[in-house]
C-alpha cells in the first residue's frame, strides 16, 4: 500500500489578484518511477509566478499550484532513481508546483546543492542567477569597458546581473522605480542609478555618457522601458528583452534592422537544455557566489501561508532582491 503524506500547499481555484492564493492541507502520494519526494525548506517567488496567477500565462486545469523553484531535502526516492538518495540536499528551478511544504519532482529537474550553499541561498539565486549568467555570459558576453543598461536593478535578476557585470569590468547604468531603491542599486554595483519616477531615462543617460552609446540593454520590465532603451544603444548593440513586468512592448523591427540592433528574447530552457548544461551552469553560478561576484544574498522571507501578501508586495514594488517562502 502506497504511503500518503500531508503537505501545506498554496493553490488557486482561478486566475486573478493575489487573494486567489489560498493555503490548505493536501495529500501527496509517495514518488513513482524516476520521481523524488522533497521536503522543501525555501521556495522562491519569481515574477513569472505572478503572470501565471493573474492570467497572463494560461493554466490548463484547476485547482493549480504555481511556482517553479525551491530547495529542500530528499525525503523519499522512487524506483529507478540512482543519482540521488534520501537525505540529499537539492534544488530546482523549472518544475511547476513549488508552493508546497512537500512535493514530487522528476529527478532530471534537480541539481544537488554543495554543502556551503544554504537552502535560502539556493532558492534566492538559482533561477535568477542562471538567468543573469545566461544574459551576460551567453547572450552578450560582458567585458571590461562595456557600458550596459540594466532595468529593475534592485530586483531579483537585476541585482545579481548588476553585481556580476560590475565584477566583469562593465560600467553599469541601472534603473529603479523609486528613490527608496537607489541605495540598494548602488550597493548592487550600479555605477549610475536612474530613478524612473523622477528622472527622464533618455536625458539622464545622455547626461551620464555624453556622445557614447550603450553596448547592451537588459530589460525585464518591457513596455514601460524598452522603446526608449533601444534608442540609447549603439549601432550594432544588443537589446535583451527577458521579461515583461509592465506589459509587452512595441517592437519596431524596421528600426532595429536599420541600426543593426540585435534583439534577443531568451528562455532559460533554450540555453540550458539538458542536465549536463545545467550542471555546468550551476557550478559557474555557485563559483561566482563564492568569489564574491554576486555579493551578499539576503532574501526577503515570508511564510508559505502568506504567499498572497508576498505577491501583493512584489506587484506593488515594495520588495527588493530575492523573495522566498518558508513552509
UniProtKB/TrEMBL annotation:
- Show the InterPro entries listed in the entry: ADH-like_C (IPR013149), ADH-like_N (IPR013154), ER (IPR020843), GroES-like_sf (IPR011032), NAD(P)-bd_dom_sf (IPR036291), QOR-like (IPR047618)
Q: Which UniProt keywords apply?
A: NADP, Oxidoreductase
Report the superkingdom from the record. Answer: Bacteria
Q: Is NADP given among the entry's keywords?
A: yes
Q: Which CDD domains match?
A: QOR2
Which Pfam families does the UniProt record give? ADH_N, ADH_zinc_N
**Oxidoreductase keyword on record:** yes
Q: Per the database record, which ranges form the Enoyl reductase (ER) domain?
A: 16-325
Q: What is this protein called?
A: Quinone oxidoreductase
Its source organism is Olivibacter oleidegradans
Amino acid at each position: 500500500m502506497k504511503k500518503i503524506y500531508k503537505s501545506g500547499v498554496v493553490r488557486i481555484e482561478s486566475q486573478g489578484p493575489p487573494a486567489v492564493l489560498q493555503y490548505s492541507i493536501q495529500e501527496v502520494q509517495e514518488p513513482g518511477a524516476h520521481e523524488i519526494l522533497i521536503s522543501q525548506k525555501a521556495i522562491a517567488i519569481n515574477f513569472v509566478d505572478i503572470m501565471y496567477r493573474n492570467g497572463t500565462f494560461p493554466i490548463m486545469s484547476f485547482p493549480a499550484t504555481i511556482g517553479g523553484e525551491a530547495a529542500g531535502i530528499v525525503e523519499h526516492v522512487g524506483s529507478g532513481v540512482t543519482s540521488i538518495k534520501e537525505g540529499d540536499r537539492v534544488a530546482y528551478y523549472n518544475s511547476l508546483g513549488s508552493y508546497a511544504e512537500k512535493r514530487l519532482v522528476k529527478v532530471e529537474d534537480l541539481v544537488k546543492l554543495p554543502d556551503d550553499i544554504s537552502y535560502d541561498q539556493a532558492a534566492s539565486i538559482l533561477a535568477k542567477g542562471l538567468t543573469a549568467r545566461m544574459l551576460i555570459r551567453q547572450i552578450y558576453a560582458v567585458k571590461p569597458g562595456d557600458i550596459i543598461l540594466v532595468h529593475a536593478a534592485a530586483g531579483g535578476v537585476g541585482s545579481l546581473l548588476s553585481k556580476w557585470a560590475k565584477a566583469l569590468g562593465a560600467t553599469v547604468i541601472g534603473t529603479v522605480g523609486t528613490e527608496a531603491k537607489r541605495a540598494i542599486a548602488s550597493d548592487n554595483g550600479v555605477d549610475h542609478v536612474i530613478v524612473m519616477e523622477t528622472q527622464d531615462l533618455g536625458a539622464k543617460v545622455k547626461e551620464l555618457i555624453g556622445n557614447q552609446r550603450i553596448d547592451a540593454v537588459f530589460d525585464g520590465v518591457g513596455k514601460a522601458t524598452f522603446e526608449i532603451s533601444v534608442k540609447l544603444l549603439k549601432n550594432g548593440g544588443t537589446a535583451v528583452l527577458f521579461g515583461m513586468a509592465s506589459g509587452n512592448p512595441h517592437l519596431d523591427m524596421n528600426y532595429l534592422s536599420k541600426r543593426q540592433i540585435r534583439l534577443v528574447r531568451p528562455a532559460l530552457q533554450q540555453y540550458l537544455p539538458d542536465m549536463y548544461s545545467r550542471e555546468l551552469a550551476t557550478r559557474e553560478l555557485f563559483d561566482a557566489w563564492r568569489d564574491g561576484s554576486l555579493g551578499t544574498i539576503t532574501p526577503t522571507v515570508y511564510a508559505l501561508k502568506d504567499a498572497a501578501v508576498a505577491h501583493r508586495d512584489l506587484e506593488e514594488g515594495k520588495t527588493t532582491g530575492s523573495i522566498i517562502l518558508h513552509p
